[in-house]
Amino acid sequence: MSGAKTAADQPATALFQLHAQQVEKLPPCQAQCPNSGDIRGWLGVIAQHEKNGLTLNQAYDRAWEMIADLNPLPATVSRICPHPCEDLCTRADKDGAVSINAVERFLGDWGLSRSLPLPRIDSEKHPESIGVIGSGPASLSFAYQMARRGYSVTLYERHSVPGGMLRHAIPDYRLPREVLDAEVERLLGLDIALRQNVDLGNDVDLEELREKHTLIFLGLGAQAARHLGIPGEQGPGVITGIDYLRQRKERSESLDGKRVLVIGGGNTAMDAARSAKRDGADVTVLYRRSETEMPAIGTEVDDARAECVDFRFLVSPTRIIRDGESIQSVQVQGMRLGEPDEQGRRRPLPVPGALQELAADIVIVAVAQASDWHGLEAVDTAHRWLRTRDDGKLDKDLWAGGDDRGPSIASRAIAQGRLAAESAHAELRGERGAGAASARNPINAGAVKTDFYANQQRSQTPRRPQTEWLSNPDAEINQTINYDQAIEEAARCMSCGLCFDCQQCFMYCNASGFTRIQETSPGNYFVLALESCEGCGKCIDLCPCGYLEARD
Amino acid sequence: MPESQGGQDVSISAENLGFTRRQERTPPLRNTVLADGSRIAVIGAGPAGSMFSYFLLSMAETLGLDVDVDLFEPRRFCHRGPAGCNHCGGIVSELLVQRLATEGIILPHDVVQRGIESYMLHMDVGDVEIATPLHEKRIAAMYRGNGPRESEPLDTQSFDGYLLELAQEKGANVVRRLVTDVRRDNDLMTVACADQHSERYDLVVVATGVNSHLLENLEGEFESFHRPARTKTFICEFRLGHELVRETFGPSMHVFLLDIPRLEFAAMVPKGEFVTVCLLGDRIDDDLINRFFSSPEVRNRFPGGVIPQQACHCYPRINVRAARPAYGDRLVVIGDSGSTRLFKDGIGSAYRTAKAAAKTAVFHGVDAASFKQHYAPLCRKIGNDNQVGKVVFGFAGLIQKTRFARRGILRMTSNEQAQTSRPRRMSGVLWDLFSGSASYTNVFVRTLHPAYIGSLVWNLVAGNVPGSAARHGRASGEEESHVRR
Amino acid sequence: MGRLGKEYKKGEIIARQGDKGSCMFVIQEGEVEAVAEAGGREFRLRTMGPNEIFGEMALFEKEIRTCTVRALGPTRILTIDKRNFLTGVHEDPSLALRIVKTMSHRIRDLTDRLAKYEEAT
Lengths: 552, 485, 121
Known about the structure:
The structure holds three protein chains of three kinds. Chain A is of the alpha/beta class. Chain A contains 17 helices and 18 strands. Chain A has three domains: 12-116 and 440-550, no CATH class; 129-223 and 370-428, FAD/NAD(P)-binding domain (3-Layer(bba) Sandwich), CATH 3.50.50.60; 238-365, FAD/NAD(P)-binding domain (3-Layer(bba) Sandwich). Chain A has helices spanning 28-32, 39-47, 56-68, 74-80, 92-95, 100-113, 137-147, 165-168, 177-188, 206-212, 241-250, 267-278, 298-306, 410-428, 483-490, 504-508, 538-542, and strands at 20-22, 129-133, 152-156, 192-195, 215-218, 238-240, 259-263, 282-287, 310-313, 315-323, 326-340, 346-359, 362-365, 393-395, 398-400, 514-521, 524-528, 548-550. The longest helix of chain A is centred in the C-terminal third of the chain and has 19 residues, at 410-428. By secondary structure, chain B is of the alpha+beta class. Chain B contains 16 helices and 21 strands. Chain B has helices at residues 14-17, 47-63, 94-103, 159-169, 214-221, 242-249, 286-294, 296-299, 346-363, 368-374, 376-401, 403-418, 425-435, 440-447, 450-464, 477-480, and strands spanning 39-43, 68-72, 91-92, 112-116, 118-123, 126-131, 139-142, 173-175, 179-185, 188-193, 198-201, 203-206, 229-232, 234-239, 252-256, 263-271, 274-281, 310-314, 317-321, 327-328, 331-333. Chain C has helices at residues 57-60, 82-91, 97-120; strands spanning 6-8, 13-15, 23-29, 32-38, 41-48, 53-54, 68-71, 75-81. Chain C has one domain (6-120): Sandwich (Jelly Rolls). Chain C is globular, with a radius of gyration of 15 Å. Chains in contact: A-B, B-C. Chains A and B meet through helix 16 and helix 17 of A and helix 7 and strand 18 of B.
């Protein structure tokens, strides 16, 4: 059959075919999550539990396991995470991003309340012994991923309690210590040895550990805060943000009526300011740029304001004026914003003559973090942060992760610990790196047909009444959504780029090309018989989540 | 309101029950008459579903009856391309345009892509136009969805979307959910959706069309139900631009009588900047489609005789044998998913079945016996007419295959169109056959008229005598005056 | 965009009193006036707009138009064939309801006007 010759010199029916194929895409939440959490996956397990023969309890258990697979501290991390996963949620422009963070927090608490065990991978024991320096989120994550793969792991912690910054720098009103304790305890339960009060360089040196262990992970953190380097800084009444927060955890001291100036605009500055407020002080935060450039989480700034913390923007301290030992005031220089710097933030420039004195009793400096390289003479610490390969490898038996590679959020520390462990495990077992993460393409903007989904308002994280924040200073402000809200919120997920069983392709395919799978699971509901496809492209047009796409 | 005639004493016979649930005999039902607060689920907001909702709510309003209608439709007709489309040639027949106008429903001008006032018949032996005497635009070419892929969204309003709006104005509640199952649930019906939502109703109206998988699910759920038999058709769209469409196709529907096996009906319909090609027959496949597009009669419709790139195409299935039975207790199947006219005026059938079902539900009852008495006769009537239709299309097939017959028809039609005083027997038959304006039975009976047969025989002879005007490929000068540009 | 029916210009006559007719009309767009001629004078009976029907009497009884209908501006009119209409009513009598309503409304209107006329004279 020669067929009608057409413009393209092909038979008429060969023109304009849109044959479908099922292709999973990377959703924006996962792309944004530093730890690449399979958010769509665990929300789907919950939202679609009935379809897959799970009770809601079973679905929550399973969803928790999926989170715990990548992050052993979900109840902890969800409480402090600024949740970048929600920033680009496809739902944001419709009726608000999915409250991923609220559901994760619910699941974290669910895992604790049900005493769910952390999921193991390997029952096989490996002979290699692993040493981990530090016990912050990166170290705990690394230790967890190695222990569950069958290695014996020892943690060396300088302080008497594990947890690193989670323990020392996050105030109780954001992260109750019971939550951290429970999650760390559950983790140590995987036969991880903890050696407390061991200070690298003093109590033990690196060479000794390298001999003892096959592999060492450095999770030192960045707890040595930088100083301002201005006259009058040395002396009583000046304290770094992290030191203040740590001391306060051990014994809180009344600052009743004291005038406290907090220097800095990051999260540590907010934590310090709000803690000082709880200790009774009059607190003013000084930041050298304007509010828009502040790196602190927006809600923390709002909450600080709600607690009557004052803010002075575009001021930079130039000297601390003392009367004898005690601080009298701080001289500040007025600033203005210049051109953006390499990070895109506008650089502050002094305004000539704009000098001012602000009365103060205590100055808390929270301008920048630094790592303490004591005991790491054998390692290249010439730069401000450790320079490792992407997977965290520093030297043949040395790996690193967390803030010692540059400060970031806890979720990134968890990711660095996990990726280092995966890579180290592959190397120890002589396997090729698992590093080649699945090459899924991010879903295109607009591929999700948001008008298919019914409107459903985002559920708000419940909060303690504001009147109680200061009167009950250690009580956690944010609360956990309830059992019913968790599934309602999970059901708001549009499942960008993965089948969630809307069944439109199956129902409307003229050629009956889709067949239902017997054993379904999120993403696996229908098989498309490619040979039966008639190329009309209807299913591609209909597919709300962008899972179906055209074949070439 | 009137009592249900069969409501109180439904005798349990398989015949009476219509749909029976697998392995289960339904006990006699209570309250099978709609009352205030009764809940009705209509599955599918195509023309059948929307018109059912519209008519039911209108009648209920007249009676002062307060019922809830949930109209389930997950798709949005505002989407362009197949996602918002319900797959048909997109013709509102002369008959239906008039019926709707009589009902007080006028099609807005942005729904009507083009008003059609004539048929252009294309054959290898020549073309002839069959026009309405008044040159009145009596047929509407429209889009079921919001036009093909690539169309300009501003140009178009979906026909289905418009009917849905009418239903909504009457108070139908549109539920944006995909129904995956209908089950009998004690005395009532349960409608289950893909998102795990389910609700109970006093009456379920299935108006999904034949291209939905729900009918297969219904077969699984109800032992006695047989979904319609289907055959594959082909529809595609070419974007030629307003100017070219107007010039080449005019206000005419173009029908092709070609000698291609298994092709029963082929037409091109101008719509705005597009032209829709629609092929009906038995198992339309790629080979047949290629033969169609390679025939000169078709190629000559396109600039330079070259088939341009399609903007959109699909292979919708059509109903070639009705669902059996199309009703049960608290269940009725309307539109294409139930009974429809063979090849023609599917939307007209949707209108007829929707209205008949709505009347039955409002005035008689929602039990199988009521539907059997008041709804089934219409389905039977459509079915019987389709039997005649098969014979008529058989004849048309014979003409397609026989060159001398085509000449006879061309001559007879051309001569009729050239004068106005004598009855136009062939033109009338062809018009009614193509437009679906009369039943197949009516068309068939007219072809048995002695005057028709006599005239046809004469034209068959005259049309095939060498030297006669109509013998030559294209129509004669006289006839050409009727080929409107 | 597409339009149905037939177009009439301002002043054009759609149906003429005394002519034979076998169809009813539905206004798609525009306005028309119905006028009756008697004793060499014209009386405007009424004006009608979109979706209104006229000429419905031809569907039921004698086929002579009782009045003249003229377009008041650019107008589009769709015709309803007697044959199509009666076939439809045969299958579904409720199809005639709207026409019955219209006719009843017009009879009421005429009755009122007649009463006023009687009163005046």
